[in-house]
Amino acid sequence: MVEELYTLHREALLRYCILLCGDVALAEDIVQNAFMRAISHFDDLEKLNPAQRRSWLYKTIRNLFYDHVRRVSVRREKEKPADEATEETGYEEAEIYMLLACLPYELSVLFSQRYIEGYTSTELGDIYGVPPATIRGKLMKARTILKEFLKEDKI
After folding, report:
1. Can you give the residue ranges of every domain in the chain?
2. pLDDT means per 10 residues in the chain (155 residues)?
3. pTM to 2 decimals?
């Protein structure tokens, strides 16, 4: 039954998860973990009809994503003093995230992964399957856009 669920729903679940997290590798991990949970809850899933099983998978993916976000937030809070963002940039954390929202989606994700999550250009290049120079170019474009927003004080 889990194999059937996997065959029927994997692609749709992966698309949903990519929309949630914006990271293909993370989405693949979350979907894989959801199917591992399905295996461990096999007896419970057998009692459900197909629509309920599908719903269970979507809820599981959403919950796994939220768990991931909480873990990352806790880790980030332990690593960084609360006022560090304000001290380093003069901007509150909420203002920084508002600025990131002004960037095109791809640039916002790259910028966050590089400067907030701490990935290197080489690591990001490996993740996205492009040379590190391409990542650096996109990051430069993101910084240029952010500088323009800061000059015009659009936030």
Report:
1. 2-79, 84-152
2. 88 87 90 94 91 89 84 64 49 69 83 82 85 95 88 63
3. 0.50
